[in-house]
Amino acid sequence: MGTAWTAGRRVLISGASIAGPSLAHWLHEYGMTAVVVERHEGIRPGGQTVDLRGAGRAVAQRMGIEDAARAACTGEDGVAFVDARNRVRAAFAADVFGGEGFVAELEILRGELARLLHERTREHTEYVFGDHVTSLDDRDDEVRVSFAHRPDQSFDLVIAADGIGSTTRGLVFGDEVRVTPLGLYTAYLTISRAGWDGSWARWHNAPGGRVVALRPDNLGTTRALMSFLCPPRGFERLPVAAQKELLRHVFAGVGWEAPRVLGELDAAEEFYFELVGQVHAPRWSSGRVALLGDAGYCASPISGMGTSLALVGAYVLAGELATHAGHRAAFRSYERIMRPYVTQAQHLPPFVPHIAHPRSRAGIGVFNALLATAAKPAVQRVARHALSPPAEKIALPDYPRFRGSPR
Ligand SMILES: Cc1cc2nc3c(=O)[nH]c(=O)nc-3n(C[C@H](O)[C@H](O)[C@H](O)COP(=O)(O)OP(=O)(O)OC[C@H]3O[C@@H](n4cnc5c(N)ncnc54)[C@H](O)[C@@H]3O)c2cc1C
């Protein structure tokens, strides 16, 4: 049920990945109109798989997209930790830890999930690609928004869902929001499938805190990841060509499949490079502007929770808007419900990410031995607590159905 307050309200959402289109879905359910502005020239492909876990999966079900997401699953059988000669040192099948371990039971390519959400919302939501917000003037009764490439417009609310580096957030919150780097850079790229890639993800540690990982996808290609420990140096702001050059330098001399991945760097169009970090915002709204997903509370890919937080956050934000008499109370309630969930998701196990990126050969040996122990059936029950993200730790509110959405 939408309140009189929500009917016909216009909401601008910045960012069309997971959080933005999910919010557009729910706003439509409650009689609001969303406009989504995305900086990229279309739904951005790229990245590896993201996990739908616990409450995130429950929200996907309520949105009516769970079956489509399941059909688009990569179907990965598990993850194997391998040495330079591709010998398996430890292996976890997808169904260990109740399907909530390293590889979740429901893994879908981030770009495929974004595409699916866009498809499901584009009939009722206006998507503006290749543009971004340049200024926000929050007047008491509306927000006046300027864009880089289109005339100014007014909206009732503005939601920043434009990821960890959200510039929309910066326009309102400035330095108030901290992005805490975790000491790790990661590059994701899509490469051609080799005959031997198989159906398991493979993870290889090389000395110097460097990792190369390969994951099969459901589109006939392979998703490669290269990550390395490094304090923040601003590499994430370099042009793509310079980032690729940096990777060649950092991964020079690494064996296993690294030369193959480096060999495909130049041709790789789907390339995403980031300084891995978390977003800590003391408040998630200011006036008529609120933060959603990674823009407000990125937990990092290491947490395995980013997509669940985005889906659950969108569900709660829209539901609270629909059940309060005004945006201020709704934003407060959204934050009150979501904060504890986010705090748990951001609480990473000790020594992460360093423990998974040992610097020495001896360290790699210890890491693999620990994993091999955790993979033993007798230890799995204990290991599950340490290795599974806190995906269930929120009681999803039940909002009244408005347009007859599936529950
Ligand atoms: C290309 C890409 C690849 C990723 N790969 C992985 C992965 O392999 N594993 C993983 O765990 N997580 C990955 N992530 C992060 C993951 O999608 C999020 O942690 C999670 O799904 C929450 O999504 P989100 O919608 O809040 O933010 P994001 O997924 O980060 O999406 C933000 C969106 O906003 C757009 N944007 C950025 N700035 C602006 C702006 N100023 N104006 C308008 N639009 C803007 C971006 O192009 C993007 O579409 C990736 C993100 C991206 C963008």
TrEMBL record:
Alphabetized InterPro entries for the sequence: FAD-bd, FAD/NAD-bd_sf, FAD_aromatic-hydroxylase
Coiled coil, from the record: none
Keywords: Monooxygenase, Oxidoreductase
Signal peptide segment: none
MF GO annotations: FAD binding; monooxygenase activity
Pfam families cross-referenced by the UniProt entry: FAD_binding_3
Top-level taxon: Bacteria
Boundaries of every FAD-binding domain copy: 11-344
Gene3D superfamilies: D-Amino Acid Oxidase, subunit A, domain 2 (3.30.9.10), FAD/NAD(P)-binding domain (3.50.50.60)
PANTHER family with a match to the protein in the record: MONOOXYGENASE (PTHR46865:SF2), OXIDOREDUCTASE-RELATED (PTHR46865)
Name of protein: FAD-binding monooxygenase
Organismal lineage: Bacteria, Bacillati, Actinomycetota, Actinomycetes, Micromonosporales
